[in-house]
């Protein structure tokens, strides 16, 4: 009795395990038929969406995927399609497939521009990874002349900044976008003045982390604009919670004192911190 039951159960499990290829094949056939029938309907809708949405207008070379994406967006699956695209992007990124990764960096946020994650990480890949890959493909840091390396780095930084600019049309008040812009300007372009302005813009946003304001003051100091840095920190310090580690009120006060000493500010005119 038990042996008969075991054999029956084994057959049931075998059937369940081995039936999925047929089911998958049938599903693909149905989707292919449905796709063919809907192609004429979806294509003009896709063209209309690209005409009306600035982000989608910037996407090129989608080929036959375009109408498929449009169908998914019409069905309300914008986030799902974008997430799947990002996974595919990561697969290509691991393989260092620059053309495919580049195309997906443009496509994914065009599908779902609401996610700042896509914009930020796309900009980082454009600025840092692509620059490194291109330098390596051109002979490497030891063989490629410095001026050519610098040209590649600047080209990729420019592309990353334009990508962040597109992100800001959807998220104009996000501090993290301004911080990422400042980091690229500082680390890749070595433009301290531009980075200072971007950190300042970041610090003015409602979601700004405390360190953005400190970085702006540091950029001012690097430019020799110590008086402006002192004024900024004096205005900043009273707004910082003393019991919040990230606010680093004690560090800000120490920088104020250092700038006052450098400027030989008379004791009676030094900053008086609130109790």
Considering the chains and any ligands shown, give keywords for the structure:
Serine Threonine Protein Phosphatase 5, Tetratricopeptide repeat; single chain; 275 residues; mainly alpha; 13 helices; flat
Give a written overview of the molecule:
It is a single chain. With 275 residues, the protein is mainly α. Among the domains are: 81-198, Tetratricopeptide repeat domain (Serine Threonine Protein Phosphatase 5, Tetratricopeptide repeat), CATH 1.25.40.10; 209-275, no CATH class. It contains 13 helices and no strands. It has helices at residues 2-18, 20-52, 54-57, 65-74, 78-94, 98-111, 116-137, 146-170, 175-187, 192-203, 210-222, 226-236, 249-262. The N and C termini lie far apart (85 Å).
In short:
This protein has 275 residues and is an all-alpha fold. Helix content is 75%, strand content 0%.
Task: Draw up the topology in text.
Elements: H1 2-18, H2 20-52, H3 54-57, H4 65-74, H5 78-94, H6 98-111, H7 116-137, H8 146-170, H9 175-187, H10 192-203, H11 210-222, H12 226-236, H13 249-262
Helix pairs in contact: 2-4, 5-6, 6-7, 7-8, 7-9, 8-9, 9-10, 10-11, 11-12, 12-13
């Amino acid at each position: 009795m038990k042996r008969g039951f075991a054999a029956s159960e084994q057959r049931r499990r075998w059937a369940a395990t081995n039936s999925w290829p047929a089911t998958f094949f049938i599903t693909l056939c149905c989707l292919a038929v449905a796709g063919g029938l809907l192609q004429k309907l979806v294509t003009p809708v896709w063209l209309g969406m690209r005409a009306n949405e600035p982000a989608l207008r910037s996407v090129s070379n989608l080929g036959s995927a375009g109408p498929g994406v449009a169908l998914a967006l019409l069905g309300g699956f914008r986030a799902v399609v974008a997430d799947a695209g990002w996974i595919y992007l990561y697969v290509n990124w691991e393989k260092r497939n620059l053309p495919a990764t580049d195309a997906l960096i443009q496509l994914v946020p065009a599908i779902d521009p609401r996610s700042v994650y896509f914009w930020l990480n796309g900009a980082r890949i454009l600025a840092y990874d692509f620059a490194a890959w291109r330098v390596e493909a051109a002979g490497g840091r030891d063989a490629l002349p410095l001026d050519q390396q610098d040209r590649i780095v600047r080209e990729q930084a420019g592309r990353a900044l334009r990508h962040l600019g597109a992100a800001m049309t959807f998220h104009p008040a996000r501090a993290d976008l301004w911080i990422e812009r400042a980091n690229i300007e500082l680390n890749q372009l070595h433009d301290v003045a531009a980075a200072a302005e971007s950190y300042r813009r970041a610090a003015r946003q409602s979601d700004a982390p405390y360190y953005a304001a400190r970085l702006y003051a540091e950029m001012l100091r690097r430019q020799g604009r110590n008086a402006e840095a002192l004024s900024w920190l004096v205005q900043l310090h009273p707004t910082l919670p003393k019991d919040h580690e990230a606010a680093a009120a004690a560090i800000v006060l120490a920088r104020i004192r250092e700038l006052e000493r450098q400027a030989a500010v008379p004791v009676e005119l030094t900053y008086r911190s609130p109790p």
